[in-house]
Write a structure and sequence with these properties.
Helices cover 35% and strands 21% of the residues. The chain is of the alpha/beta class. It has a domain at 6-56 and 89-116: Ribosomal Protein L13p, Chain: A.
Length: 118
């Protein structure tokens, strides 16, 4: 049986980061499909374009931080979200979507099918 990928294209211009991430996570998971099954791979790809025009509402542009802990003493790193987006373009959205998906083996497969473009 040949599997067929379904493609979705989303425009990120003017949307907030969290709302876009929840939409992407829902699409990647296959929850919009008629034959949704939680434990099966839905074979869906999501392409997000105009990510450079995304909106951080409120004071998130100046106050929201991303933390990474190496596991060693004094290994907590903090970076503001605008700097994170400049440093690694789609990392902010990828992290938001990653944390919205279930923590299981299927999550890595689903994240490979997310592409983000300027």
């Amino acid at each position: 049986m040949a599997t067929k990928f379904k493609n979705y294209t989303l425009d990120a211009a003017g949307q907030s980061l969290g709302r876009l991430a929840s939409e992407v996570a829902s699409l990647l998971r296959g929850k919009r499909e008629v034959n949704y099954t939680p434990h099966l791979d839905p074979f869906i790809t999501v392409r997000v374009f105009n990510f450079g025009k995304i909106v951080l509402t409120g004071k998130k542009g100046t106050q929201k931080m991303h933390y990474h802990y190496s596991g060693y003493q004094g290994g907590l790193k903090a970076i503001k979200y605008p700097e994170l987006i400049k440093k690694d373009f789609g990392r902010g959205l990828k992290l938001a979507v990653l944390r919205m998906l279930n923590k299981n083996r299927l999550r890595a497969k689903l994240m490979k099918r997310l592409t983000i473009e300027k």
